[in-house]
């Protein structure tokens, strides 16, 4: 989430941090833009992937410099985020004993700044022994942009789902055979379209095979996550080398590939997908 100017609070002395926002870094909930799984996201910040996770507090010091304070009091940050999301004021002032590290820079984009201090900038090199953190490049298609796209689909599932006509899926195809990837109604007479279709289908088959392998050989923590959806359904999120998958356990799935810039590939239910999603949900990490 992103805070507002009113959310900024001072922690007290000349080394005060004016808090602008905070995020969770846990196996079940982490900024996916930082990595395909929890250990990869932690490695971006040079943190050990502790099972309990961390809270990341992003703010500015009195000179306006960007800092990311890592704390081990996850519940403190979770309560603050929940309050802010509900439009409530909540002061986030971590106890010094909970601070794990103070890292220069921000690993994520922050759209607000602290009133009354200089504009956000990286701390002076004399104040730190490591390069400042900076957000991943999302201006061009790649892993970071692909994962952000999957985040958006999970957040706006209904909007994306209503764009899909189920009649466009091939009824005879299951997860073993691209799981109902929409048929090319133009036929083989348009070679370019046929070639693109073949590439998409090959990519879908590869992703489903890799996702299926997670059931037998669990991947790094956080590569498969399960969260609440509507009714008894769950929203599944799985990531792997070059791909992201978003699905509802009672519905279809969407796949994004590094090699297919900006493409969102729908995957129909078919006879195999329901079982795959059920198996992934059983082994997925869930919010506590």
UniProtKB/TrEMBL annotation:
Residues 113-147, 167-201 are annotated as: Disordered. Residues 183-199 have a biased composition (Basic and acidic residues). This is Integral membrane protein. The lineage of its organism: Bacteria, Bacillati, Actinomycetota, Actinomycetes, Kitasatosporales.
């Amino acid at each position: 989430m992103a805070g507002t100017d009113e959310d900024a609070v001072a922690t007290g002395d000349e080394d005060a941090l004016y808090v602008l926002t905070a995020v969770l870094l846990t196996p079940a909930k982490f900024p996916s833009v930082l990595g395909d799984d929890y250990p990869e996201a932690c490695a971006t910040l040079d943190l050990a992937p502790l099972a309990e996770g961390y809270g990341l507090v992003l703010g500015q010091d009195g000179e306006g410099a960007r800092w990311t304070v890592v704390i081990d009091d996850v519940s403190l940050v979770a309560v603050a985020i929940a309050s802010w999301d509900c439009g409530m004021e909540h002061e986030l002032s971590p106890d010094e004993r909970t601070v794990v590290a103070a890292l220069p820079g921000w690993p994520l984009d922050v759209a607000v700044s602290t009133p009354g201090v200089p504009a956000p900038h990286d701390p002076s090199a004399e104040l730190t022994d490591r390069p400042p953190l900076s957000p991943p490049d999302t201006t061009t298609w790649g892993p970071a942009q692909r994962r952000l796209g999957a985040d958006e689909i999970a957040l706006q599932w209904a909007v994306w789902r209503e764009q899909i006509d189920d009649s466009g899926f091939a009824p005879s195809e299951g997860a073993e055979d691209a799981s109902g990837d929409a048929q090319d109604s133009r036929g083989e007479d348009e070679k370019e379209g046929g070639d693109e279709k073949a590439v998409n289908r090959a990519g879908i088959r590869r992703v489903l095979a890799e996702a299926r392998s997670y059931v037998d050989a669990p991947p790094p923590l956080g590569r498969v996550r399960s969260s609440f959806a509507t009714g008894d359904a769950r929203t599944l999120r799985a990531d792997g080398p070059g791909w992201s998958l978003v699905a509802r356990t009672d519905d279809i799935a969407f796949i994004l590939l590094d090699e297919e810039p900006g493409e969102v590939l729908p995957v129909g239910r078919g006879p195999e997908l329901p079982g795959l999603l059920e198996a992934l949900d059983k082994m997925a990490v869930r919010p506590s």
